Amino acid sequence: MPAPTRLTVPSRGETTAALATEVIGGPVGRFAAIGRRGWTYVAALLSALASVFVALGVLQKNHCVREGWGSPGSLWRECYSDLPVGATAVHGGSPWDTGGLGHNQPVLTAVLGWLVNQITPGGSALAVQQVYFAIGAAIIVLLVAATTLATASIVRGTPWLAAHVALSPVLVTAALVSFDMLGVALATFGLACWARRRPVAAGVLLGAAVMARTYPLVIIAAIVLIAVRDKQLRPMARMLGGAAAAVAVCCALAVLMGGNPLDPYRTWWDQKGSYGAPSYVLTIAHVSVPGDALSIIAVLGWVIAILLGLYLTGRPKERTQLAPLALTMLVVVLLTGKSMSVQTCLWLLPLLAVSAIRWRDHLVWAGVEITYFVMVWLYIAGPSNPGKAMPGAAFSFFLIVRAIAYVGIAWASWESSEDLPRDPLDPYAEPRPAPAAGRRFPHPVT
Fold first, then answer.
1. I need a labelling partner for 190 at 20 to 30 A (CA). Which of 101, 203, 214, 215 fits?
2. What is the distance between the alpha carbons of residues 408 and 156, in angstroms, rounded to a whole number?
3. Selection from 142, 246, 242 nearest residue 193 by Cα
4. How far apart are CA 255 and CA 260, in angstroms?
5. Rounded-to-integer distance, Cα 163 and Cα 212, Å
6. Are 147 and 187 in contact (CB under 8 A)?
7. How many CB atoms neighbour CB 183 within 10 A?
8. What keywords does the record list, in alphabetical order (predicted)?
């Protein structure tokens, strides 16, 4: 089954992509030599374009770059970022010293923030924050480029799908809020290694990703379910061994630096519901829900996600693909969790690309995400000026719309992935036969 035109030449096969290319000369011509320069050329081009989107993110945060990240100004201007928080830590020591990131961030994210702090020169408080933010932005540009490269290497036959990482509008608003792209990059390289039949390397990278962001555990679970279905138990065991080794090394690093790698998870268990989670609607309605109860619901969300994954991979007449499976399980975990930060959207981008999502669906989801980005800051800043704050009822509406958008993009990924000739993340999959004339594949989730 050959790849549809929308995957090999998006500007010819998708109306949305064709309209977008008008600013750079229009769709690809009919006499163009498609694919002659290979996937590495596409990856390099998209990586360069991704830096433009991150630069637009710096421009979007221009007020804070000039005036500082103090509250409530950074909230009203929607330019808040966690990055300058790392600039307030004391030089030397470790990420687990008083005020360090190790108490509320996973090990590798905390270490990265600490390292940036060590190379940031001293000066006035604003100058230190500005330099720290600039270094952090440069690192994030490289991480986005690396994620784009890894995604393109997964979909080598259709490398323009990596544009869903490099050219996503959510990069402008979310990329510079934190160092979440570290976990995204590590997880994507782990997926690329799994696709190339390198299970140990995949496990090490995915284990490291877990120690930067927790969500790659969902990807590991999805890989396990697919491997069990395909009876590839040996590669699965090697992948899990690599992941366990990476986690052990990271935890040992934290202990050697005088910290406790479990600190952020203990803090999470006691926390109450926070912004972004659907359960936060109860908080807005002045319904008090204990943090322990929300933690139990979040754990049950993981159980539900795994059970759903078992069902989806166990259907005899369908060969479930890894990317939409992992994306669906991730959405279940997110919607039952205690919070959904504005940078959560970054976690989905590689999975959307490998699912061959249509740009129409991507942009609708991104539009909702960017709208929520604006509304959440207006709501958080409310106590400083109730007269222009986002009302709780209106914010609840946007919370629900955002949750629906996440369900919608997960649903759309199943249909769009049907256009792929084979599962790019399943190294043991056979090419899919072409459908009969006038017939589409049955929808995987019905």
1. 101
2. 27
3. 242
4. 6
5. 24
6. no
7. 24
8. Cell membrane, Membrane, Transferase, Transmembrane, Transmembrane helix
| SS3 call for 90 | coil
Token duo for residue 108: 């590798």
pLDDT score recorded for residue 87: 79
Q: Are 353 and 165 in contact (CB under 8 A)?
A: yes
State the Cα angle at 115 between 114 and 120, rounded to 5°. Answer: 95
Token pair in block for residue 399: 């919370």
* Cα separation, 193 vs 425, whole angstroms: 9
Q: How far apart are CA 110 and CA 91, in angstroms?
A: 14
Contact 344, 276 (CB under 8 A): yes
Residue whose structure tokens are 């690809």: 28
Within 10 angstroms of residue 85's Cβ, the number of other Cβ atoms is 17
Q: Residue 420 has what pLDDT?
A: 84
Number of helices (H) and strands (E), helices first, in the chain?
21, 0
Tokens 């942009």 identify what position?
A: 363
Q: Is 316 exposed, middle or buried (0-12, 13-18, 19+ CB in 10 A)?
A: exposed
Long-range contacts, 111-119 (Cβ 8 Å, 24+)? 111/253, 111/257, 112/139, 112/179, 112/182, 112/212, 113/83, 113/86, 113/89, 113/179, 114/86, 114/89, 116/86, 117/86, 117/87, 117/89, 117/91, 118/91, 118/92
The answer to whether the pTM exceeds 0.85 is yes
Q: How many residues in total does the chain contain?
A: 446
Note whether 192 and 150 are within 8 A (CB).
yes
Cβ atoms 272, 289 nearer than 8 A: yes
d(CA 327, CA 263): 28
| DSSP label at residue 88 | G
Distance CA 108, CA 344 (A): 18
**Could you say which DSSP state residue 435 is in?**
P
